[in-house]
Design goal:
It holds the Pfam family PurS. Helices cover about 35% and strands about 25% of the residues. It contains 3 helices and 3 strands, in the order βαβαβα.
């Protein structure tokens, strides 16, 4: 069984109130080295068999169609989890 990870982030021009709340809380907890936070979403999609280029392309299409709101979010990564862990990242072509 293979797994594909899809990561979605708010577009840079979109206000990120959750990120602002986190960046405000970090110094109060002693984490003073961070100056900005953007919070996104991560999806893990399981497939029967291996993750092929066709599976990655389908995951990319699903990410653009359902998993993200293209008006306010960018799909920033679609990758094979196992290849990513092995250091041989395989990603679908991102726009």
């Amino acid at each position: 069984m293979g797994r594909v990870v899809v990561e979605v982030m708010p577009k840079p021009e979109i206000l990120d109130p959750q990120g602002k709340a986190v960046v405000g809380a970090l110094p109060r907890l002693g984490f003073t080295q961070f100056t900005s936070v953007r919070q996104g979403k991560r999806f893990e999609l399981e497939v029967e068999g291996d993750v092929t280029p066709e599976v990655l392309a389908a995951a990319q299409a699903a990410a653009e169609t359902l998993l993200s709101n293209p008006i306010i979010e960018d799909v920033v990564r679609v990758a094979d989890v196992e290849a990513d862990a092995a250091g041989t990242i395989t990603s679908a072509g991102l726009a």
